[in-house]
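User: Predict the structure for this protein chain, please.
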Amino acid sequence: MKRLLWLLPLVLAGLGVWWAVQVKNAPPEVRVTTAMTGPLVDMLVTNGKVEPVAFSAVRAERAGVLKRLLIEKGQQVAAGAVIGVLDNTEWRIAAEAAEARVAQVEAELNVQRGGGRASELAGIDGELEKLELDRNQAEAELATVRRLLAKNAATRQEARTLEDRIAQLQQQRASLRARRAVLFTPADRGVLEARLREARTAVTAARDKRSQSTLRSPIAGVVYQLDPRPGAFLNPGDLVASIGRVDELLVKVFIDEPELGRVAPALPAVITWDAAPGKHWDGHVEKMPVQIVSMGTRQVGEVSVRIANPDNALPPGANINASIRSREAQQAISIPKESIRREAGVQGVYVVSGNQLQWRPVNIGVTNITHAQVLEGVAAGDRVVLATDVPLRSGQLVTPVSEDAAR
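Assistant: Here is the predicted structure, written as structure tokens:
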């Protein structure tokens, strides 16, 4: 009995060694699946953002307080419709003041064109008339003195006195006439005309500023963005509203740069929005990207997809999901993409024949997120090895574990 107890550990140790050897030399387990035949659609799934087909931004043209806002978000407006009014008190007063200056300068110009102010002209003309009478009287007296002088009935001094008087009157008349002529000089007229142009410019500027108080919609459409509230102070260029046509929409679909080769104009697309589960919008690719841009860690091209939005259910600015139907194969032999690997620069798969692996190069056609069409290298019904951490080689024995039930 003691001898049997002594042999038992040896037997157990031997069994352990035998089991270890068997396990170590057992073929490794690998997951396999069967190549199937059927339709395969290449759907490129990504995200995007919605924009109206035609839109315009209404911005403040001048600084001021938003006195009234006459629209609401989602409202349909006509082209030229008033959407808001800025406080125009300052520019209304400025326009009235400029108009008053225009009237004043025009009145002064009318006076100038008439030769001067009526009261000044009348005064000068009255003095000229009196000087004319005085001169005529002095000339008559001089003629009388000269006749008397010829008869020695008057003196030469009397004649000289009258001659000096006549010369003085003529000088006074010439001075008055010169004064009358220069009541307004050409230079004065130029100054007045410059002041008039300045005043009219001020009127135009004030009226323009006052007209900028009325904010109008440049196009007919739906108000899909409305930023300020009445009472807000706006600076020039501040956005007041965005108005656009939303019965049709353009979707900016962000395609990763390596996937752009799967996209072409006119390909069908389906748009969904997380906020409207169960609803979708059909469209087509309208325009390919003109450049690659950075979006976080992604390098993407912005592909334009046009969709109909007859009930205006999809709002501009929405972040959406997009699926573009790139290619389709009706009777494709397809395998999971995870079964495809690259060895020595060759793309291929491992096929299980019995319990032995065979390496087969493959030619791939249409692909989608999970599967790929095999054009050459795999036949329908072949069992291909899925991704595994086990090192594989052609001719190796394996224990296949089928995952067809999970497909």
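The helical segments are 2-25, 89-113, 118-150, 156-181, 186-211.
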